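Can you please make up a whole protein chain along with its backbone structure tokens because I've never seen that pairing?
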Amino acid sequence: MIIKLEEDAGAYLEKTGTRRLLIDMTPDMTNSGCGCGKSKKFYTPNIRPMKAEEQTAGYTRFEAGPAEIFISPRALEAADDVVTVILEKTLFVKKLDLKGIRFVVE
């Protein structure tokens, strides 16, 4: 697997001084619109800067440009061959996002 940084995302990381990122899957529940009351659990890919005190045991480490990226086992299973870190811009808000990791439904 390869992790790439889009040019805008790399510039954003340099400007903010962020060097370590964490890619994880955020759990949530849904009833899938069936109305039958049976909930299903799904996981959404999430990327964020790591806190200094966070442990990286169990995570796989990748390097992409100036950034160290740690990816959880569940996100690694859902990832395509190429994962791209992009910068999403909406009006006055800029945030990091991912391409190449799909939702997981259980």
About this structure: The radius of gyration is 15 Å.
